[in-house]
Amino acid sequence: QVRLVESGGDLVQPGGSLRLSCAASGFPFDYYTMTWYRRTPGNERELVAGISTLGGSTNYADFVEGRFTISRDNAKSMLYLQMNGLKPEDTGLYYCRADSEDAAEYWGQGTQVTVSS
């Protein structure tokens, strides 16, 4: 059974940090590119960060502004997003997604991040 399970979302003050995790199982993790998406209030789902199959290449949305780092551990089938300097506008539901070269696609259920004083 294919599973993607996000965790690590929480309520945090502006300027705080969180580390999100995505645990993958049921598919060959190291053959899939991995991405983080988010859905913020009043907006459609948008890409946050992406990472290649072996972790050698990463990309980030402009709004990240150097604050986030995406990483993966293929030995553990885990994806991470380290978020520092969080802002209220970062509030939203964060999802991980797995994509294969032949267009197989899997989504997790999401984890809630709330940035508020």
Structural class: mainly beta
The separation of the N and C termini measures 40 Å
Shape: globular
Total of DSSP H or I helical runs spanning 4+ residues: 0
Which segments are poorly predicted (pLDDT under 50) over 5 or more consecutive residues?
none
If you compute it from the alpha carbons, what radius of gyration comes out, rounded to the nearest whole angstrom? Answer: 14 Å
Our estimate of the beta-strand percent is: over 45%
Major sheet, described briefly? 7 strands, mixed
The overall pLDDT, averaged over residues, is 97
Report the helical percentage.
under 10%
Order of helices and strands: EEEEEEEEEEE
Count of β-strands: 11
What does this 3D model show about the protein?
The protein is an all-beta fold and 117 residues long. Helix content is 0%, strand content 52%. It has strands spanning 3-7, 11-12, 18-25, 32-39, 46-51, 58-60, 68-73, 78-83, 92-100, 105-107, 111-115. The strands form two sheets. Strands 2, 4, 5, 6, 9, 10 and 11 form a seven-stranded mixed sheet that branches.
How would you summarize this macromolecular structure in one to three sentences?
By secondary structure, this protein is an all-beta fold.
Chart the SSEs and their pairings.
Layout (H helix, E strand, L loop, with lengths): L2 E5 L3 E2 L5 E8 L6 E8 L6 E6 L6 E3 L7 E6 L4 E6 L8 E9 L4 E3 L3 E5 L2
Parallel strand pairs: 2-11
Antiparallel strand pairs: 1-3, 3-8, 4-5, 4-9, 5-6, 7-8, 9-10, 9-11
Which labels suit this protein?
117 residues, 7-stranded mixed sheet, 4-stranded antiparallel sheet, mainly beta, 0% helix
